[in-house]
Design brief:
The complex is a heterodimer of chains A (110) and B (113). In chain A, 0% of the residues lie in helices and 52% in strands. With 110 residues, chain A is mainly β. In chain A, strands 2, 4, 5, 6, 9, 10 and 11 form a seven-stranded mixed sheet that branches. In chain A, strands 1-3-8-7 form a four-stranded antiparallel sheet, with no helix packed on it. In chain A, a hairpin with a 4-residue loop joins strand 9 and strand 10. The model of chain A has no long low-confidence stretch (mean pLDDT 93). In chain B, the strands form two sheets. In chain B, strands 2, 4, 5, 9, 10 and 11 form a six-stranded mixed sheet that branches. In chain B, strand 6 and strand 7 form a beta hairpin. The model of chain B has no long low-confidence stretch (mean pLDDT 90). The chains are: A mainly beta (110), B mainly beta (113). At the A-B interface, strand 5 and strand 10 of A face strand 4 and strand 5 of B.
C-alpha cells in the first residue's frame, strides 16, 4: 500500500495565484485531515472530513477550501495565495485512533 | 481550552545519554495520547500511543512513555540516545473518541557525538 500520498512536493507561487494540493489515501479511511506546519508552532488543523461529501473547518481555515467527492481523495485549494500561506502542508487519514501522514508539500508564496 | 504542552522547544543530549521529552495535557478526563517523530523533510511517524490500556507504553526505536494521570503527563523517554534519534518530536492528544488530534509545539532533539 502507498498509504497517504501528496503532490506536489514543492511549489512556489506568486501572490494572488491559486493552486490545488492533492492528497490521496488507499487505506479506505473515512477521516481525512489537512494541517499546516510552521516553525515552532506545531501542526494546525485547516480542514477535515469525516467521509465522502462531508467537510468541516478546523482551526485555521481562512484562505483555503476543500472538497471530498471520493473516500480516497481530499484536495486542498488555495485561492489568492498570500505570503502568510507559506508553510509545509500535511495531509493525513485516520483509522480508529491513529493518524497516518503524507510526506508533505512545501509551499512558498512570494 | 483543551491543549497539550511540550516543555522545551529544543533538547540536546550526548550519544548514549538518557532522552527525556516532556508533555503535559490539560484535561481531568484521560485522553488518548500520542508521540510522533518527524525526521528532516519528512512526514510524521507514530512512535507510540496510549489508549487507556497499560500506563507504560513501549514504542518503536526503543522509546517508551508513561501516562501519569495525577501529573497529567505523558513524557517520552529512551535510555540511551543514538545519533539517528535526532529529529523533531510531537506530543498529540485526542480528548474524546472521534475528536480531533491536538498537537504540541514540538521539541527538537539534537544528539551530540
Amino acid at each position: 500500500n502507498a498509504g497517504v500520498t501528496q503532490t506536489p512536493k514543492f511549489r512556489i507561487l506568486k501572490i494572488g495565484q491559486s493552486m490545488t494540493l492533492q492528497c490521496t489515501q488507499d487505506m479506505n479511511h473515512n477521516y481525512m485531515y489537512w494541517y499546516r506546519q510552521d516553525p515552532g508552532m506545531g501542526l494546525k488543523l485547516i480542514y477535515y472530513s469525516v467521509g465522502a461529501g462531508i467537510t468541516d473547518k478546523g482551526e485555521v481555515p481562512n484562505g483555503y477550501n476543500v472538497s471530498r467527492s471520493t473516500t480516497e481523495d481530499f484536495p486542498l485549494r488555495l485561492e489568492l495565495a498570500a505570503p502568510s500561506q507559506t508553510s509545509v502542508y500535511f495531509c493525513a487519514s485516520r483509522n480508529v485512533d491513529e493518524q497516518f501522514f503524507g510526506p508533505g508539500t512545501r509551499l512558498t508564496v512570494l | 481550552a483543551q491543549s497539550v504542552t511540550q516543555l522545551g522547544s529544543h533538547v540536546s543530549v550526548s550519544e548514549g545519554a538518557l532522552v527525556l521529552l516532556r508533555c503535559n495535557y490539560s484535561s481531568s478526563v484521560p485522553p488518548y495520547l500520542f508521540w510522533y517523530v518527524q525526521y528532516p523533510n519528512q512526514g510524521l511517524q507514530l512512535l507510540l500511543k496510549y489508549t487507556s490500556a497499560a500506563t507504560l507504553v513501549k514504542g518503536i526505536n526503543g522509546f517508551e512513555a508513561e501516562f501519569k494521570k495525577s501529573e497529567t503527563s505523558f513524557h517520552l523517554t529512551k535510555p540511551s540516545a543514538h545519533m539517528s534519534d535526532a529529529a523533531e518530536y510531537f506530543c498529540a492528544v485526542i480528548y474524546n473518541q472521534g475528536g480531533k488530534l491536538i498537537f504540541g509545539q514540538g521539541t527538537e532533539l539534537s544528539v551530540k557525538p
